[in-house]
Amino acid sequence: MRRYRADTPMGKLSGGMEAALRAATPEGRVAADNAVLSQREIDALLSADLGRQQEAAAPGAVPLHPEPGRRVKPYDFRHPEKLSKEQIRGLQIIQQGVAGTLAAAFSGRLRAPVESRLSALERGIYEEYVTQIGQQSVVVMIDMNPLQGYAVAAFGLDVAFGVIDRLLGGKGKTSARTLNRDLTDIEIALIRHIGMDIARALIEPWARVTELVPDVTELAVGPQVMHVIPPAEFVITAWYEVRFGDQTGGISLCFPLTVLEQILPKLTGQSLFENRPNRNLLEDTRVKQEQILPMTVSLRTMLGQARVDANDVANLEPGDIIVLDRLVADPLRVLVGNCERFAGSPGTRGRKVALQLSGTVDDDGWVKPFLGAGDE
After folding, report:
1. Are residues 240 and 310 in the same domain?
2. Domain limit, last residue, from 253, 271, 292
3. Using CA atoms, how far apart are residues 269 and 263, in angstroms rounded to an integer?
4. Quick check: 142 and 266 in contact, CB under 8 A?
5. What CATH number does the domain containing 354 carry?
6. Cα end-to-end span (Å), the chain
7. Domain for residue 75, yes or no?
8. Same domain, yes or no: 33 and 178
9. Whether residue 54 has pLDDT greater than 70
10. CA dist., res. 125 & res. 255, Å (int)
C-alpha cells in the first residue's frame, strides 16, 4: 500500500480535512497524529470536501431542512391533483343527482321503494379501482357518447342476485350458495337492463354540462372487460349505497380523466347553475324519444261492420253489396294498434285516398272534436 506523509505536497490536507480526521475513529486519530494517511483515506476526505464545496456553490440551492415558519405541503406523485376543488365540487353535485335518478329508475324496475345516496367521491388511478371492486362483481362498460371514452359501472354479485330474485317475483334476497355460481344467460340479460338503467341515470344530471346518449357496450363478471382504460389513468370514482327491501349494496361509477377533461370548463359553480335542466322539459323529451319514436305501430281506418251468414259469404260474387252499420254522415274510426283513438272523414288528396281527422275517441267510444281545424 502506498503511503504519503502529511507534509509532502500530495499529503497536505486542508484545515477542515484535518479537523474531520481528528473527529473520526480512534484509528483515524492515530493516523492523524502520525501524519501518515492511506490512499483510501485521502480519497474519502477529498470526495467529502469536494461535495460540500459543490453544494455551497450551486445557484439557487435549497437547504435540506425547511426554514422555520414555512409550511411544507406533501405531494403524492401517485395521486396528483388533476382537478381543482371547484371542479370536484361540481362533479359531486352531478353525482348526487345521479343517485336520485338511480333510485327512481330502480324503484320502477323492481316495483319496490329503493333508496340511493352518494357515499364517497374518490380520486385515484384505474389500477387501484380494479383492485377495489375485486373479482366477484358485475362490470358494465358505458360508452359516454358524444364524449370520447368510456365509463365503468360495477356492483357486487350480492346486488345482482338480489335484483334478479326481485325481478323474477321474489323478495330480493340472496343466499351464500347463489353467490358461488356463475350467472346464466337469462340472468345476464336481466342484469343488462339494470346496466341500461345505470347508463340512463346519467342523462338528466349530466345535462348541466353535456347532452349524453350513453350506451352499454359490454357486460361481464369480473374485470376482464376493463382493458379499455389504461391501468395508470387518473380516475374519479363515485360510490353509491343502494337499499331495497332488507338488502343494502354498493354501486360504483368510474370516470377516467380523458372523459372528464372534455367537460372541465363547465364544472364551475356558475356554469352548473346556469345550465340547470328543466325537469318537466326533460321528462317530456324522455317520454317522446324513449317510448314513442322507437316504436312502430299499425294505423288503420275501419269503414264499418256487418254480420253476414256463412252461406252468404260462401256465395259472394262480384257486384254483391254488403250493407255496413255506419251512416254516411258518421265519422270513420281510426285504430292505433287495436284501439280506437281518432275519428275522421274520407276524401282524396291529389291522386291518393286521404282521411281528414276531426276528433279523438275516448275510452267510452265518444268522439271529441278537435278545438282547432281538422288535420289531414
Report:
1. no
2. 292
3. 13
4. no
5. 2.30.330.10
6. 115
7. no
8. no
9. no
10. 10
- Answer yes or no: are the C-beta atoms of 362 and 339 closer than 8 Å: no
State the DSSP string of 109-146.
HHTS-EEEEEEEEEEEEHHHHHHHH-SSEEEEEEE-TT
Tally of domains in the chain: 3
Grid cell of 92 as nine digits: 359531486
**pLDDT tens digits for 282-327?**
555 555 555 555 567 788 888 888 888 888 888 888 988 888 888 8
In terms of domains, do 109 and 36 share one?
no
Domain that holds residue 212: 85-292
Rounded to the nearest 10 degrees, how much is the dihedral formed by the CA atoms of 19, 21, 24, 27? Answer: -140
> Rounded to an integer, what is the distance from CA 142 to the centroid of its chain?
7
pLDDT tens per residue across span 212-255 = 999 999 888 876 666 778 888 899 999 999 988 778 889 999 99
SS3 254: strand
Phi-psi region of 66 (alpha: psi -120 to 50; beta: other; left: phi over 0): beta
Residue 206 has pLDDT above 60, yes or no: yes
Type of residue numbered 110: L
Alpha-carbon distance of 255 to 149, in angstroms, equals: 9
Across the chain, the runs of DSSP E, i.e. the strands, are 3-5, 36-38, 114-125, 137-143, 150-156, 215-221, 234-244, 247-256, 299-302, 332-336, 339-349, 352-361, 367-369
User: For residue 233, what is the domain's CATH number?
Assistant: 3.40.1550.10
- In the numeric block, which cell numbers belong to residue 228? 379499455
**Percentage of the chain modeled with pLDDT above 90:** 18
Q: The C-alpha cell of 123 is what? A: 380520486
* Helix axis angle, 26-34 to 15-22, nearest 10°: 130
Paired with 219 in beta bridges are 140
In-domain check, residue 321? yes
In a domain, 335, yes or no: yes
User: What cell was used for 374?
Assistant: 281538422
pTM metric for this prediction: 0.54
pLDDT digits (tens, 9 = 90+) for 320-376: 888 888 888 888 888 887 788 888 888 898 888 888 888 888 877 788 888 764 444
183: amino acid identity, one letter: L
Q: Are residues 342 and 208 in the same domain?
A: no
Which domain-ending residue is among 15, 39, 57?
Answer: 57
